[in-house]
Amino acid sequence: MPRTATHVLLASLVLLAGVAAPVAADGFVVVTVDKPNEEPVPEEPFTLNVTVSNAEGSANAYTVTDLEILEGRNSSSEEVETKDVSERVAPGNTAELSIEPTLNETGTHRLYAHITLLEADGDRRRIVEPVSVTVYRPSPQLELSVEEAVAGAERSVNVTVANGLDVQLSQLDLTVSTPASNVTFGATNRVRAVLAAESAATFSFPAKAVATGRYPVTVTLRYSESGNRRTVTETFNGDFTAPQNPGRIRLTGVNVVRNGDVLAISGSAANIGGDQVSSVVVSVQNADGVTAAQPQPDYFVGTVDGSDFVSFDLNAKLTGDRTTVPIRVEYVVDGVQQSYTTEIQVGQEALATPEPANTGGSFPTLPALVGLAVVALAAVVLWLRR
Q: What global pTM score does this model have?
């Protein structure tokens, strides 16, 4: 990290009030000022870190009482920022200080850190250390948002570029990337010719997450401003979560009745989620002792809105001691195919095999005989009246 340092023999320090007091010849104080880690911009505070170290062999302890950032070496120079402190620095120890000045104009500024030390005898001394700070024009602001979707579904990763400058940006080149193996992008680059001053634009990137969760997404914007090519890079914690209540199909109100040698199965495909599902199909699965039967071995339900249902009808045949019918449910939510199989229990009444119809010449029953006698008597009466 770039830094400036001053090794000062205490006897040569500037005395703030009167004549310098005598000090040990081997006593040293070292002051360093780190340049800011971030790029300062106009009218925004930035951090300067100041380290005051008292040498191991020093004969004196000191207390840092003031930390000032001025525009010149003299104590009467224009003040940028000041901070009252009270940090004791014993021989062999170090005081870590920070201050947050603000500059209003772009360009490189020569600043001076003024550190005031209080000695044990009451004398005050000042150390001055210069530091150069470059103030940059503000960069465009980046924001990232991720659409909700179930695992494996395609979703949009949206990046908004806000140009808060008073000049337009040109030749915008925006890229996204991630080290996460669970996330893949269908496209990673977007370009735009111009972004007007004090305006914003949103760029969408198709992505899929095989497992939902939070994953890092790095956004890099390259652009030209007033003829200068610049780059802004920021890493976001992308939220690749699923909807709290995605569309989901469940079979409800299922009823099984026997119709000859075929079971008639009816019920509802209910969407118990909040999102619409499509391409819903229910079908009887062939297995030991069960086969799909005509006229309705499967049923296309179609689209089911959130918290809605659509009825269906199926047919199956059972053999042996089978008492359940496997039904497969398939549907699409957020572009992803979902499926499962459920077993439908068949009641005893539907399991009972119907008795075959009587087609032989058995002796007529008593009611039938009475009916025949009445018909015969009526015929005799009609004949006598002739």
A: 0.57
